[in-house]
Structure formats: structure tokens, C-alpha cells
From TrEMBL:
TM helices/strands, residue ranges: 34-54, 98-118, 130-150, 180-203, 234-254, 286-306
Segments of this protein annotated with the region Disordered: 1-25
Classification lineage: Bacteria, Bacillati, Actinomycetota, Actinomycetes, Streptosporangiales
Name of a matching Pfam family: BPD_transp_1
InterPro entries xrefs: ABC_transporter_permease, MetI-like, MetI-like_sf
Domain ABC transmembrane type-1: 93-307
SUPFAM superfamilies: MetI-like
Main location: membrane
Record protein name field: Sugar ABC transporter permease
């Protein structure tokens, strides 16, 4: 007859205690050290970004001149004036549309084509990459000074080269001709900024798995078909980023145009942001200029929202 006994260690007895729940560690949702480290950046961001933006928004509904404290509330009159009583701004919007087409469409297509070529293994590939990226690190003032000299109708490099090649009839006053000035400025701006788009596209091309391209090649996909049906679809997030940056640059274009032509000749190169500068700091219509700036801010925020939503739907 078997006798069943329990282990003494498992029998509750005198002097034994059941283990209770482990003590909870108190976690502070706001780490003081984190906020102390973040405080300088928050202060700088508030002082130099949030506060000026708030001032612009408040000024957009007044007739402030920006220099005296006197201003009256005008409501949405500044915004109504933009599209109904300011023909100069409408002309600037037309020029901005032409500028945006070249900056967004033409530059994006060129940058992608250059990136595809540079992504191939070639002798001196790094040299070509550095050549396209070099304008990004050059001061805009230096770029404008150099190209203004090259476009000089008398001693400029462009016209001198054309005359030396026997094409003197093609020599033009590139920045003084009403029909050519805008396109000359666009050429300079594309040359100065295309390298950044090329670098972004190169980074996107580097994320495409080589196995996918190799499988397409085995299946008989030619270079063009592989580019169209594999590379481009996989590069959609990269295209979205490049397009958002291009739209941002087109709407905020100012320095190259202002330094080269100041909006001339006869308003041929007047863009939206040069018009904002003229209204705010030349005519002292700071309230009206602020309303124009608010429109740009709203448009840029809307574009960024649409781009983020598109990326979420694609992922």
C-alpha cells in the first residue's frame, strides 16, 4: 500500500508566507532631463519660427505698415484684394506658374534621368556625382554674380561663345529681353538646385533590391520596360518627396530672381514672393504682404498633408 506524502516545501505551515505582487515602478511620463535638454531648441523654435508666424497671421487681417504700431482691423479685405484688385499680383502668379512648371516637371524629369545614368557603374561615376551636386554648396550670391556676368550682352561668356562659333545671330540680351529674362532665370535656378534632386533619386534607386531587377532581366525585360514597370513604381515615395520639395522651392523662389533682375524688365520676372517683398518692404503694405505670405503657408501645409496621406495609402 502506497502512502502519498506532500513535499514539506509545498505545505503551508507556520512561518511561511505567500509571495505578494511585485511592487510597481513609478514611471514619470515627463522626464525632467529630457525637457531640460529639449528646452533650448524649443525656445529658439518658438522665438524664431512660431512667434514670427503668429505675427504674420495677426498682421494679415490688419492694414499694418510694419513700422508704426498703428493698425486697424480689416478682416478678409487683404485676401479679397489679392485676387480682385491687384493685377500686378495676377501677372506675378502667371510667371510663378511658368516657373513652377519648369521647377517641378522639367527639373524632376531631368533629375531622375541623370540619377538613372549615374546609378549605372561607370568610370569616374563619383566625379560626375560631385559635379552635379557642387552647385548646392555654392553661395547663391556667387551663383548669381557668375551667371549675370555670363549673360552680359556685350562681354558675357554665352554671347562671346556664340559669336566665336559663328552663331552671332543667336546672341541676346538674356536678362534684358522681356521674352527671355524669365527663362534665363529659370535656367540658372534649375542648374543650381537640380543636384539635390539627383542625390535624392540616387538614394531611392539604391533601395531597390538587386534581386528584383535581376529577375526582371531574366524574364526578358529590357532596360526601358524595367525602368517603367519596376523602377518607377518602386520609386513613388521618392518621387513624392522630390515633388513636394520642388513645389516648396517654386512657391518660395525669391533670391535668384531678385538678385539677378529684381523682377524686371517690366515685371517679366516678377514672382509671387518678389511681389510679397515689394509690397511689404518697398511699399510698406505689411498687412497686405502678410496675407500673401499666409496663403503660401496654407498651400504648403496642404501639399505636405496630401503627400503624407498619399504615402500612407501606398504603404
Amino acid at each position: 500500500m502506497a502512502v502519498h506524502t506532500s513535499s514539506p516545501s509545498l505545505r503551508p505551515g507556520k512561518g511561511t508566507e505567500r509571495p505578494g505582487p511585485a511592487p510597481r515602478r513609478i514611471r514619470h511620463p515627463l522626464n525632467s532631463r529630457f525637457w531640460i535638454a529639449l528646452a533650448p531648441a524649443l525656445v529658439l523654435y518658438t522665438v524664431f519660427t512660431l512667434y514670427p508666424m503668429a505675427q504674420v497671421v495677426l498682421s494679415s487681417v490688419t492694414d499694418s505698415n510694419g513700422f508704426t504700431g498703428d493698425s486697424d482691423f480689416v478682416g478678409l479685405d487683404n485676401f479679397a484684394r489679392m485676387f480682385t484688385r491687384d493685377p500686378a499680383l495676377l501677372d506675378a502668379l502667371g510667371n510663378t506658374g511658368v516657373y513652377a512648371f519648369f521647377r517641378i516637371v522639367v527639373q524632376t524629369v531631368l533629375a531622375f534621368g541623370i540619377a538613372v545614368l549615374l546609378n549605372k557603374k561607370m568610370v569616374g561615376g563619383n566625379v560626375y556625382r560631385a559635379t552635379f551636386f557642387a552647385p548646392i554648396v555654392i553661395s547663391p550670391v556667387a551663383i548669381v554674380f557668375t551667371w549675370s556676368f555670363m549673360f552680359d550682352p556685350t562681354t558675357g561668356t554665352v554671347n562671346t561663345t556664340l559669336r566665336d562659333l559663328g552663331l552671332g545671330s543667336w546672341a541676346q540680351d538674356w536678362l534684358g529681353d522681356y521674352d527671355l529674362a524669365l527663362y534665363s532665370v529659370i535656367l540658372v535656378d534649375i542648374w543650381a538646385s537640380i543636384g539635390f534632386s539627383v542625390v535624392i533619386f540616387l538614394a531611392g534607386l539604391g533601395t531597390i533590391p538587386s534581386e528584383v531587377l535581376e529577375a526582371a532581366r531574366v524574364d526578358g525585360a529590357t532596360g526601358w520596360r524595367s525602368l517603367r514597370h519596376i523602377t518607377v513604381p518602386l520609386m513613388r515615395p521618392t518621387f513624392g518627396l522630390v515633388l513636394v520639395l520642388a513645389v516648396n522651392g517654386a512657391l518660395r523662389a525669391f533670391d535668384t530672381v531678385y538678385l539677378m533682375t529684381k523682377g524686371g524688365p517690366g515685371g517679366a520676372t516678377e514672382l509671387y514672393m518678389t511681389r510679397v517683398f515689394f509690397e511689404g518692404f518697398v511699399k510698406n503694405h505689411f498687412g497686405y504682404a502678410s496675407s500673401m505670405a499666409v496663403v503660401v503657408i496654407v498651400v504648403l501645409i496642404g501639399i505636405a498633408y496630401l503627400q503624407n496621406r498619399f504615402e500612407r495609402e501606398m504603404s
